[in-house]
Amino acid sequence: MQPAALPMDDRIPVHVLTGFLGSGKTTFLRHLLGDPGFSDTAVVINEFGEVGLDHLLVREVSEDAVLLSSGCLCCAVRDDLISTLSDLAAMMRHGQVPPFRRVVIETTGLADPAPIMQAVMSDLQLRRSYRAGTVVTTVDGVSGTSSIAGFAEAAQQVALADCIVVTKSDLVEPWRLDALGLEIGKINPAVRRLVSGKAGMPETGDIFEQAAGLQPRHAVVFGVRAVRHSAGIETFTVDVPEEVEWPVFIDWLELLLSGRGLSILRVKGLLPVAGDARPVVIHGVQHVVYPPEYLPAWPDGVRRGWLVFIARDLTATAIENSLREILALPD
Asked: Where do the CobW C-terminal domain residues begin and end (predicted)?
């Protein structure tokens, strides 16, 4: 699996909108669906009834898909996600639905986003039309701290997020928002955070486009070591200071995820690869590795690699020892 240049990928990104029960995810989804700038989007949801789409409905385009007044295509999951996404792509190719350039999947409040990402990453048929996009997680500004502490599902939704939207900010004291921010940072220190409330909602395009990929902002994770929170999920960074031989590294990573995929919720980072001046973006979820890609240049010109792990029952020391042995890195 050789890295691919980023500009060559014109497949449709599949984004995930998730969030724990009562976190304001449905309100945010309605905000998305009513935004004219979101018109070239297919939204996949579990049930139309929970979202309240009657005032947005234009016409039914198939048994399970409707066209909204904003131009969004809204589709319900009928059998499974893979068949739903495949059907959407086929309908677009045959001119049965308007063209769309992004898909947003809205999960239930207790859902784990990882299997959705895995489906897009691992299914060969889907990968012809789609690529994995970003995970946006809504977190309740009022009850988010207790939800993260008490429910593994809420903590995992935060752990896998590329962007966090803290909701109901107008209903809680600033110090509680600060405390929630600390809890989020323990789980996912590099995540981008936005705040919403009755006074205003974040710009939708800004969320999905700027949260995508590995931006230079991720440099802040340097030096983060073994941060564990109440759900037993640990976040740590492993430095990769030397160039790696690509075939050796990818064999190691695939073997690691194959053997410990249930423990590794997510791994992402940048790598210096022998024979190329560009950094390689690494991204994996549980048992599956994304197709690796190049960035045009190193952030801030610093040619030093790193891998961020979000894992359960797996230590930074174990990863460092394994990587050191395989790649002959110094102690």
From this structure: 233-327
- Quote the Cα angle for 49-39-136, to 5°: 65
My answer on whether 264 and 197 are in the same domain is no
Instruction: Please tell me the total count of domains within the chain.
Output: 2
Q: What distance in Å separates the CA atoms of residue 148 and residue 233, rounded to the nearest whole number? A: 11
For the segment 259-298, what is each residue's pLDDT rounded down to a tens digit? 776 778 778 888 888 888 888 888 777 677 777 778 888 8
- pLDDT (average), residues 69-87: 71
Which CATH number characterizes residue 273's domain?
3.30.1220.10
CA–CA separation, 183 and 162 (whole Å): 16
In a domain, 265, yes or no: yes
Largest CA distance in the chain: 64
In a domain, 105, yes or no: yes
- What gap in Å lies between CA 136 and CA 67, rounded to an integer? 23
Same domain flag for 213 and 283: no
